[in-house]
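Thought: the user wants the 3D structure for the chain below. I'll pass the sequence to the structure tool as-is, report back what it returns, then summarize two notable features.
Action: structure_tool
Action Input:
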Amino acid sequence: MTETTPGKLYGLGVGPGDPELISMKSYRLLQESQVVAYPTGRAGGGNALSIVEPHLREDHIMLPMMYPATAGKVADSPEYPQLMTDFYDDTANEIAAHLDTGRNVALICQGDPFFYGSYMYWHARLAEKYDTTVVPGISSVMTGPVVLGKPLCHRTDTVTVIPATLSEEEIEARLKVADSAVLMKLGRTLPKVRRVLKRIGRLDEAWLVERATMEGERVIPMTDDSVEKAGYFSICVLPCKTPV
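Observation:
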């Protein structure tokens, strides 16, 4: 009896939202895969899936992996870490089942797999056992300033990337020493970020970039009082001073 050669795992960064911003390598490996695994919320679909939809084949086997929670009270509960650990364990087993039959699995990730990407959790569970290739993707840190039309850094500037889920005091400390910055994970944290920016005198430098390169894209100065909440795909950009 011939032993089946396991399939390959591809962690594909598919970019910020525009299907044309997928790299040629991600596209090629997507086409070489029999299975497309994708994270999704309870409503189904998901942004990573919508990005690759124009590139899917009819014979692709789709493997949705539904998060048990993404925000709200459940995400704030003490049970949340174990809930997510169980989710990644269970879905890693589902992926492994396909790999063990010899199927290649493309696990798609919006943005970049290793930059705040969920892919890293599956990678930690599967990469030591299976032949794995990770393909970088364009992240919102790169996309936001382009959509804004303002450079992020030049010459000796340094860029600080800050998760807005940090405490108000920590965000303030990091922004005070930042030449330019991008704040991720806005959503419910937007009022906190605006308070900090106003307190340290940098509110007029900052811009909200929401759904960059996607339908519904918007760019709003953070000084605008209409900016009361941010959607899921939002960042705050403090670009560098205009180079001359």
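Final Answer: Structure generated. The chain has two domains: 9-135, 140-238. Residues 80-100 form the longest helix (21 residues).
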